[in-house]
């Protein structure tokens, strides 16, 4: 008799494994609700990320231009496209590389517009002038790439430099 009861208990446990249709529907509905709440924040995060990538890439390219000037002993420059506001060129002796900003990211303003939209580095690594490049995205977030006057030190900031 004992053997028969244990078989019945095992059979009951086997039939109880799994989920009901109502449980599955509730979980799917809950995931759908959570995803509609989280999706707008994801879009804001992506536009902010694109802006940060563009600013840090520009700062890196400015440093690279400065290092090439020092190592090769010739003048390199970066020319900003302030008409389209979405690209810049790294140039030396007519040779260069065009870099486009990510979609939705643009130059807002720069102090280099006063010197033919150009930041150049002499063979000593000194910039033609210190300055700031403001980069914006569609959400009105702004990052500033700042080049120091004497040293050519490049940094990215959320706050514009004091004038």
From TrEMBL:
Stretches that traverse the bilayer: 20-40
Keywords attached to this entry: Membrane, Transmembrane, Transmembrane helix
GO biological process: establishment of competence for transformation
Protein name in the entry: Prepilin-type N-terminal cleavage/methylation domain-containing protein
Organism: Tepidanaerobacter acetatoxydans (strain DSM 21804 / JCM 16047 / Re1)
Taxonomic lineage: Bacteria, Bacillati, Bacillota, Clostridia, Thermosediminibacterales
